[in-house]
Amino acid sequence: MKxxxxxxxxxxxxxxxxxxxxxxxxxxxxxxEAVVGELESQANDGRDTGWEGLSELQRLTALDDEGSVTxxxxxxxxxxxxxxxxxxxxxxxxxxxxAEEQGATLLTSxxxxxxxxxxxxxxxxxxxxxxxxxxxxxxxxxxxxETMSVHLKTGTKPKAKRGSLGDMHYESxxxxxxxxxxxxxxADDIEDTARTSSEGFLELSEPGMSIVQFRDYxxxxxxxxxxxxxxxxxxxxxxxxxxxxxxxxEELKDRLSERQRGVLISxxxxxxxxxFAQAVAEFLNDSDYAVxxxxxxxxxQVGPEITQYTALDGxxxxxxxxxxxxxxxxxxxxxxxxxxDFEVFSDMRLAGVGMVGVVHATRxxxxxxxxxxxxxxxxxxxxxxxxxxxxxxEVHTVYDVTTQVKVPEGLTAEDLARPVIQVADFETGxxxxxxxxxxxxxxTVPLGEGGEGDSETGVGRLARQEIERExxxxxxxxxxxxxxxxxxxxxxxxxxxxxxxxxxxxxxISDVEDRLGIDIDVRTHDENPNRGGGSAGGxxxxxGGDGGTVVQPEVTSRHIVVRMDxxxxxxxxxxxxxxxxxxxxxxxxxxxxxxxxxxxxxxxxQAIDRxxxxxxxxx
Length: 619
Hints:
By secondary structure, this protein is of the alpha/beta class. The strands form six sheets. Strands 15-14-16-17-13-18-19-20-21-22 form a ten-stranded mixed sheet, sandwiched between helices.
């Protein structure tokens, strides 16, 4: 009798079991090369199923050597196009063809393969698939009522984050170091249990990385080569709240119930954003709104009436298209991170769906600024009209976002009127920020006075910087700016630059005044009463006492390099003796590189040559 096993039967060890229980004396096992190719591919990807299947083939070889059975390798290897279509049944079709050509019985633990073989008239033996995993979460013993997450890695002590929202502590929970064999056992059991249990599923399965959702646990399992060792991170929500437990609950309820809105829930990691989002989702559902979620992975703890969607075919755009057919009143988007996420969020909001997005941000205004450049400026209030900032599990700040055509705060010329996004405190109604286009740049300006020791307003600082930029593009030497009220300034330049800056008949400086909407008086440095101690209006001050970090730029053959290792990704201002030079973003390598030969580099080199103090300030 001839038997052709498919991949599922080999992986489950059902072939050697069949041989040991066989009553036939002349049993021949015909192993398709397609099965060998699939197992080899899985093993190369680091999947345990591939290694288990190869171990079964080695057992069959040993049985053949003993004379218990005859083992033959038959058929052809699958083509690359067939291998990539494994989920569509291409490899299974090749295996069925081998069984048909050999006149053999197909052995499988794949119910679909079995039914297709029967439909094609191929003799088939179906055996139940081997149950994998313990059926329970093997690492659940590490959790108690105050444990939010457990962190396990080969060669380290198990650790956990425990405490309450806003008071979490990262601590060791066992003194014994976990060895690789134990980590592999835990990782395999988690993945196998998720595959077989009705209480869990694999959210993501890629070479080196799996994400499991099991009950209310979200578990990330990382392996080599993606990680440098096996690592398991299991997260579980420790709090489930209702909207009534938060500040401004009644006002927020009225706001959310009034009409569909665009809301960003922001905060630092672990601040309680998702917990608040769950409370909002439950309130909306109880208020007779149709609520859905978009999550990758799905870990919001919401009731069964709220359907949780993930990325369809790996793309949230497809999920959004499907949701528009479902017609939800509100969608909770957890989390909005990349530009693509903001675009999907915006498209759904502009289609009339109420949207609640969860965003990482260290300040409430930062959440709104992440839309700048991703959404047309004038459309931002239509996309997001409410920003909620969560800190230590509490509602810290709520902003109301509106738009109006007006002269930005601090400017007076009527011809400067433009669309302005106004960000106001939800409780007091007092405007705190304005966002608008100024001199071809989108700027976010804090309203009111600056911090202690800084009498310059946000608008004043912006105006001074823009004047400096404009005059530096004309003048060849040093430039100082002193603001004289809201719409007037004095510019101090070298004697040789006076006529060049003013231009013939005052035409050049008039063009600058028209662009900025500010009257500018041009004078020489000798007329500057503050020359010894730096320019007035906050642009001078060589002592570096204005909160900046003193740096020593390195001049190489091609670049000027400013090292800022602790500020990767931050936008900062570079100043010389307190005078603004330029704004830059600190790169991934922890430095700012300015190409020599550029105008900015020349100014910076001149400042270095004059031995001015170079300082870095938050932008």
